[in-house]
Structure formats: structure tokens, C-alpha cells
Amino acid sequence: MFINMSILRVAGASLAAIILLPLQSLRAETTSDSERLQKLERAVEQLQKRNAELEKEVSSLKKQAVIAPVPAEGPTKKQVTYDGKTLIEKNVVEAEKPKVYVEPRGPEIKLTLGGFIQVNFEDGAVSAFEGRFPDRPNEIKDRFRLRRARINLTGEFAENFDFKIEGDFANGDGISSSRTAFSGTDIFINWHQYPEAQIKVGQWKAPFGLEQTTPDTSLFTIERSLPTGAITPERQIGAQIWGKPFTNIWPEEKDLLTYYAGIFNGNGRNTNINDNNNFMAVGRLELMPFKGKIFGQDSSLKFGGDVLNSRDDAGVNISQTLNLKVNADGSLTPFTLPSADERTAWSLDAWLTVGPFDLIGEYLSEDVDGRTVAGVVPKFADFEPSGWYVQGSYFILPKKLQAVVKWEELSPDQVASDGIRSITGGLNYYIHGDSIKLMVDYVHTWSDFREVHPQFGDDEFDEVIARLQVMF
User: Which domain holds residue 396?
Assistant: First the structure.
């Protein structure tokens, strides 16, 4: 409507000029024809000038009146159509999909879903450092291995409880040791109202051994040492009290001392039936006397000590993670008790960190003594397995590329010269911290028994292990 009125103004002005021209002519009848002609020419020039100004104004008004396109509401996507002659591309509103959400059923104030995957490539004398020698029936071939594939759910309650439920898809399914199946790992509830005295019940790693209790995703070598696997008790079902005594009375030194004391069934994870009426008792103390700066670098020094006592019946596997029993050819297999025993174990460890450098050492020892139960005398001789390792690591590229060297020894103490020694050299590349990590280890292993008894085969073995780890 605004444009039409402007056009009418132009037309009106032109009509007025046409009407005024005769009137001007009539008034000027007394003047000469020359003067009349000059006036007429000037009037025509003024009319043309005014008409040009009006046309310019109308053109400007038309441009302002163009209606701007209305932006589409919500996200858009490209849509291509064909009208029979040409392809037409335009933006159309994309329908918004409903959001997926999880709502806690109980009074949880926090729920976290997570997990991790570890995939190994193993080549050479696979697992020889565990006592699985390549020329024996328990030989493991070169392989890709789904080492761990875990998913977990953790949560916290307003009543000062936290919990964790975790399972592993990479465990044996009980039908064949070469298959994978889902199996529980950490399943526990922890009451943490008092940091000095927390109470934990369920299934998790019994608090024995520094390397054993270090999370799988945080290790500097791909696999734990043979002494750790042969002597430590791994995951158990039970209850413990633990805490940091100085949390409130000396907050700036809350990590100075941490203690753990628990009782467990003692016969492994995912086993709800105890082998007898006795429990495994486990305790650990951690002391951190120093945490600060050395040469301007974040540094710390931590010491630890562990004790364990367990009275087991026949049929219990006392080397639940790796191998301990010495076979006739010097190889090792899991030690399943042929009769009852009583075990007492202890260990000491230390961990020094100075900026990019870490030095870790641990010594473990155990007494395995046979005992008579219901008139059944022991079917094995007492033995005292022991072992140690020392590990050094350094970041060649800060927080990215880490070099690691580890020396380890285990003495099963069942026959003469039954020791096994290994050296590991490795590189770890942290793509995104521990969340995405590449690891490569070379392991060289010596068998003292095989060296003394060459008729059984090679006494030195080499293996290369590579791992990709992804946490989510």
C-alpha cells in the first residue's frame, strides 16, 4: 500500500504541471513569443528534474519493501528436489529427535557409566615369563588377545554411600579357556561418612601388594610381574575397614597414612561358597612421608607393607592370577592344593616419583605349610615362595612418550634351581593420557631349572607384546 501512494504522488505532480502550463501561457499573452518560449522551456526542465527525483524515490521505496525471508525454526538440513527440468536445493527444518536420558530409580545423587578395552598382540614365546614354556602342552601360540573388556557403573548416595558394579567380557566362560564371556570383577558398597574409618563390603582386590592393587589401566608395563601374580590373592569376597586417619585432624597431611584391614572367603572371586569356616585376613599400611617439590618438579615418596593369613582346604587355587606350581620340566602352572594348608604372606614396597621419573620396587614372600584336617595328612611338602621386582620409568616426551625397564625374579622354592627371571623393556605412548594409550614391551626370560636340566629344552625365551587401551 505504501508503494501505491508514492506512485499516485508522482502522477498527481505531473498532472498539476500539465494544468499550470496553459494558465501560465494565458497570463503571459502580453509578452513576446520569445519570452513565452523561454519560460516554457524552463518549466519543462524543472518538470523533468522533479520527475527524475520522484522516480528515484519510488525505486528506493521498492527496494525497502522487499520482504526478508523468515529464518527457519530449529536445525535445518539440505533437501534436493527435481521439478522435471532442474535440481532444486533448499533448506528445510529438520524434525528434532527426542533426547535419551537415564533417570535413577533410587536416591542416587550421582551415576557414572564407564569402562575400558585392552587388546593385545602377543608374539614369540607367549607368556614364557609366567612359566608357560613354548615346547610344553600348556604352550600358548602367537595371538591377538582381548585382554580386558570391562563396563562399570559407579554411584553415590546422599547417605554417604558409594558403590561400583563392574564386569569383564574377556574372562573364560567355563566351557573353554579359549573363549570369552561376561564375569564379575568389582562389585561393592562403601560407606564413607568418616574418611578415617570407611567400611566396604562386596568383591574387589584384597589389599595386598602395590602392583596388584594398582589399577589395570595405570600400569607402566603391559602385564604385572610373575611374583605379584603368584603370591598376591587378587579379588576376593569379603569386608574391610579402611581410611586416612589424618583427614580431619591434619588435613594438609591427609595422605600421610592410609590403612586397610579386611577378612575374605579366600578362595577367589565370584565364589559365594567358602571352602571352610576360616577367613583370609589381609592388612596393608601405606606411608607417604614426602609430597612436594624436588628441583621444581612434583615429587613424592611412598612406602607400603602387607600381611596375609589364610587356612585353606584341598582344592583351593592359591596362585589365582599367575602360576606357582613347578612341573617336572621346570614350567609353572596354577597351584591347586592337594590337601589343606595354612598360608602366611608379607610384602614391602616403595615408590619414588620425581617429575617425569618413577622408581618402584617390591618384595613378596609367603610360607605355605601343610596341615592335617580330619586325619588327612598333608600331600605336599612345605615351601616358601618369594620374589621381587624393580621398575624404572622416564617420560622422554613430557606426558606423551614414556620408557620403562623392569627386572623381576620368582623363586617358587619347590625343587632345586626353580627360579625364573625376566627383564622387560617398553615404550608407552599416551595419546590422551591413560584414556587412549599405546604400549609395546619386549620381555626376555631365563629359566634356572632349564639351564641346569638342558634335556628339557630351551632355557631362554623372548616375547613381544603390544597393547591398545581405550577408556570411556
Answer: 112-471
